[in-house]
Amino acid sequence: MSAFPYSVALDLGITDDELLQTKAGARGLGSQEKAVPAWRAKHITINARVIAVLPDAAKPFGPLFPLNPVFLKDTDRMLLGRADFFNAFSVSFPKPVLGSKFILAY
Predict the structure, then answer these.
(1) Which of 103, 105, 72 is nearest to 88 (CA)?
(2) Neighbour-count burial of 18, counting CB atoms closer than 10 A to its CB (0-12 exposed, 13-18 middle, 19+ buried)
(3) CA distances from 25 to 15, 32, 36, 43 (A)
(4) How far apart are CA 67 and CA 81, in angstroms?
(5) In the structure, what pLDDT confidence band is assigned to residue 72 with cuts at 50, 70 and 90?
(6) Sign of CA dihedral 6, 8, 10, 15
């Protein structure tokens, strides 16, 4: 599950009336012990695309893919979840030589 700050929903033009609080809430982003309140957009499709930041320019990479995120209040942290991101890409994590690296393929 992807999770974004509540303010991102508003930045995307999603109004408070278009957000529905989930019954289960969300875990993660530092809330392992208990679920935190979370909201989902009702009847709205959110599409995303990876932007590759290259030395000469930032360029779209890969397909558009649908996101089904929750929006959280009281956080500025974001998490792009497996259910969204990993359905659009094959992701591999080669043994790092220097630092952490991953490879995206579509």
Answers:
(1) 105
(2) middle
(3) 19, 12, 5, 19
(4) 9
(5) very high
(6) negative
The SS3 of residue 4 is: strand
Give the mean model confidence (pLDDT) for residues 18-31: 80
From the number of C-beta atoms within 10 Å of its C-beta (0-12, 13-18, 19+), residue 30 rates as: exposed
Residue 28: the pLDDT is: 64
Pick the closest to residue 10 from 80, 69, 84, 71 (CA basis).
71
d(CA 72, CA 33): 16
Distance CA 21, CA 70 (A): 9
Residue 36 is given by DSSP the state B
Question: Domain map of the chain by residue range?
Answer: 3-105
Measured in whole angstroms, the distance separating CA 32 from the mean position of its chain's CA atoms is 18
Total number of residues shown for the chain:
106
User: 69: buried, middle or exposed (CB in 10 Å: 19+, 13-18, 0-12)?
Assistant: buried
